[in-house]
Amino acid sequence: MADGSIGLWTVPLAVLGGAIRVSTPFLFVSLGECITERSGRINLGLEGTLVMGAMSAYGISYLTGSPWLGVLAAGITGALLGALHAGICSLPRVNDIAVGIALMLFGTGLAFYLGKPLIEPTAPRLPAIDFGWWSDIPQVRAALRVNVLFLIGVALAPILYWAFRTTRWGLLIRTAGESSDAARAMGHSVLLIRLRATMVGGFLAGIGGSFLSLFYPGSWNEGLSSGQGITAVALVIFARWDPLLCLWASLAFGGAAALGPALQSVGVTSGYHLFNAAPYILTLAIMIITCSPKRTLTGAPAELSITR
Amino acid sequence: MTAEAADPVEAVGTVAPAADPGFLQRHGGAIEYILIPGAALAGALVVFGIFVAMFGKNPLDLYFYMYYGAFGTWFSWQNTLTRAAPLILTALCTALPAQLGMVIIGGEGALLIGALSATGAALVLQGMPPLIVQIAMVVGGVIGGGLWVMLSGALRQYRGVNETISSLLLVYIALAVLNHLVEGAMRDPASLNKPSTREIGAANMIGSIPGTDVHWGLVFGLIAAIAAYILIYHTVFGFAARVAGGNIRAAKIVGLNVSKLILTICFLAGGAAGLAGMVEVAAVQGRTNANLAAGYGFTGILVAFLARQNPLAIIPVAILLGGISASGGLLQRRLGLPDASVLVLQGIIFVFVLASDALYGRIGFLKGKS
């Protein structure tokens, strides 16, 4: 396949490229949500956080000329939205799922409002590292143009895995998620632990959003995220709250999401929209296979309202 | 205060208080149910006023145009009521399952599927008398939307899949199905720029209530809301549903068929949203295309929560939020606010309404303080 015309190989190559490129937002949101859910709370608002992150990253990158400042701004915006979620949830009798839905609508609305002037201009984008230099085939080179954020995300997954197991704050988060009584008995404020966990989760989800606007697809518009955030939240459930499994699941999702455009590029256009829905169908299918009404999922934090 | 605030188990573990049937009885006064959401709404309007003031707009102008665009003239009232009609129906899609303690947020998906099946029914029956076509559209819309949400209920009951996430995923899948059919099998070859299905035909449109420009969908919505209220609060079935929503174990012990309850309620919920889709096709659009994904399903979630999942309270709340979205155009023209400002306001209202849940049962304490 080294002689330029690669025919049907385009599809698996594009899926591979997609697994690398498209998976990054899934990866960041799911790792962030993993931290939040391990502390015993679910934040469905990360869909809104993702869009707000994308918008603020693009805006700051445009205003300052530095895409990395944009990434930082996206993270901070996400952390603020996370703080809002945790703050409202710490009031008595407030349901975290409902607050998440509210923040999903609020985040997307606010991003559309503030992002109106950003649809036209072009902001500096994040650079890519060319891992495909060894190949002459343009498709291979395109597939292997990797963004630094992806590498950070890939590194973050084992770090989080290790941190949950061995570090003090990892233990604290897990304690808050398994038994808030135990955490309280140890003299820690469960609300504070969850506030921090939700803010870190929001920070990561915001960065995931910055990838959308600053690298791939690489512009700001209102159709930028259609459900990636919520898919990533669902992904955490079947990744059994394990950061390493989140990584593999994100890669699978990126590949699934790239399937539609890849098939279109080789001329298969009939089921374009259905293939675009592949990540959602895949999520639903995997949830159907892995969930069970009889037992709680292994690895589920006991305090989590979504598993009950 | 401290004892409860320090107890996050309670905050996390319980579903929306409205799902608890004893809540109303225990707290007696309906005053709280008007006062607290009213205060939350007022608080949200103040925050939104501050928000637009930061962009150099006068908040008082904002309030005036919002009122004027929503309820100021007969024209704006008609606009408001036209928008309220689908909101009543999509709000029922969240409020009915909430009686069982389920959080369904997939009204938008059921609306789209309902619109598709209603359109399909009308196109198959072309040439039949309009009344038959219209009845077939209602049946098609209700069954299409009903089955779509029933899927989430079935997945929850038989596979333990979280219904909130599955219903939202089904929204995106419904949109993909709609685009697939509208650009493929059901496409009208004449629709070049905006792929659409064929028109259902002017004779089959359900038209307006005499003397107004408000279409009959409003009446559909009112009937559905009242029927839902009677079903939930004045029938044995509704009582059983509320028992199951309050305590699922108790419901099983007394021998209630929980699966049947969940599937039926979810079907009715989705049917309401599907009817909203049928109404949008048969009274507004005349055909199915991507325009139908206008967000009525998502605003309906807010309506349901603001109405505290009470089917009767949904009616005034839907009119209020229909008014807010009706005033969006005027805000855009007169104040130069982006069309997303309505979304921002809805988001702020939602956040305030949920935060105000903490106030229930504390109103005496608040009065004593001020």
UniProtKB/TrEMBL annotation, chain A:
<keyword id="KW-0472">Membrane</keyword>
<dbReference type="InterPro" id="IPR001851">
    <property type="entry name" value="ABC_transp_permease"/>
</dbReference>
<keyword id="KW-0812">Transmembrane</keyword>
<feature type="transmembrane region" description="Helical">
    <location>
        <begin position="69"/>
        <end position="90"/>
    </location>
</feature>
<feature type="transmembrane region" description="Helical">
    <location>
        <begin position="246"/>
        <end position="266"/>
    </location>
</feature>
<dbReference type="Pfam" id="PF02653">
    <property type="entry name" value="BPD_transp_2"/>
</dbReference>
<feature type="transmembrane region" description="Helical">
    <location>
        <begin position="6"/>
        <end position="32"/>
    </location>
</feature>
<feature type="transmembrane region" description="Helical">
    <location>
        <begin position="223"/>
        <end position="239"/>
    </location>
</feature>
<keyword id="KW-1133">Transmembrane helix</keyword>
<dbReference type="GO" id="GO:0005886">
    <property type="term" value="C:plasma membrane"/>
</dbReference>
<feature type="transmembrane region" description="Helical">
    <location>
        <begin position="195"/>
        <end position="217"/>
    </location>
</feature>
<feature type="transmembrane region" description="Helical">
    <location>
        <begin position="272"/>
        <end position="291"/>
    </location>
</feature>
<dbReference type="GO" id="GO:0022857">
    <property type="term" value="F:transmembrane transporter activity"/>
</dbReference>
<keyword id="KW-1003">Cell membrane</keyword>
<protein>
    <submittedName>
        <fullName>ABC transporter permease</fullName>
    </submittedName>
</protein>
<feature type="transmembrane region" description="Helical">
    <location>
        <begin position="142"/>
        <end position="164"/>
    </location>
</feature>
<feature type="transmembrane region" description="Helical">
    <location>
        <begin position="97"/>
        <end position="115"/>
    </location>
</feature>
<feature type="transmembrane region" description="Helical">
    <location>
        <begin position="44"/>
        <end position="63"/>
    </location>
</feature>
